């Protein structure tokens, strides 16, 4: 049973093997995340569930994988999956927008701006995933600005999001 759990953790941590890419495994994991998000049905509840699962399973599997491969080893790309999905959250399903999101997330993940490098020092899988979460937040904010400027017809105003959320959960 323990062997199955270990193999499951390593499979998840490696982004179903994309982390074994000999060239740019983080980019391969991000590309996998992009394709999966593109193919997933566009139901907000489903995407939120996928995101939460990627975060929870990401921390768990990264912690397990670190025991075998070392801290934040390049094979561990489940953090790129979670970060990429944060980047894509609330963005319109438009090829150019997703391309910009992909490029911005990779840039934020590599550069590690404003606290991302420090948050990476958290213990275990938390540190592995946290910097990519922060990179995903930064990339998402930049993408939202790009969408508002260049793709205005697809922009989702914050007021509309709040109204939908309020209605769904009975907040007035």
Please, could you describe this protein's structure?
The chain has helices at residues 2-13, 25-39, 44-69, 78-88, 95-111, 116-119, 124-150, 158-169. It starts with a helix and ends with a helix. The protein is globular, with a radius of gyration of 16 Å. The protein contains 8 helices and no strands. It has one domain (2-169). The model has no long low-confidence stretch (mean pLDDT 90). α4 crosses α5 (95-111). It is an all-alpha fold and 172 residues long. The relative contact order is 0.13.
How is this structure best summarized?
The chain is an all-alpha fold and 172 residues long. It has helices at 2-13, 25-39, 44-69, 78-88, 95-111, 116-119, 124-150, 158-169.
Key structural traits:
172 residues; mainly alpha; 8 helices; 72% helix
How would you summarize the topology of this molecule?
Layout: H1 2-13, H2 25-39, H3 44-69, H4 78-88, H5 95-111, H6 116-119, H7 124-150, H8 158-169
Helix pairs in contact: 1-3, 2-4, 2-5, 3-4, 3-7, 4-5, 4-7, 5-7
Provide the low-confidence segments as ranges. Answer: none
Rg on CA atoms, Å: 16 Å
Number of E-state strands: 0
- Beta strand %: under 5%
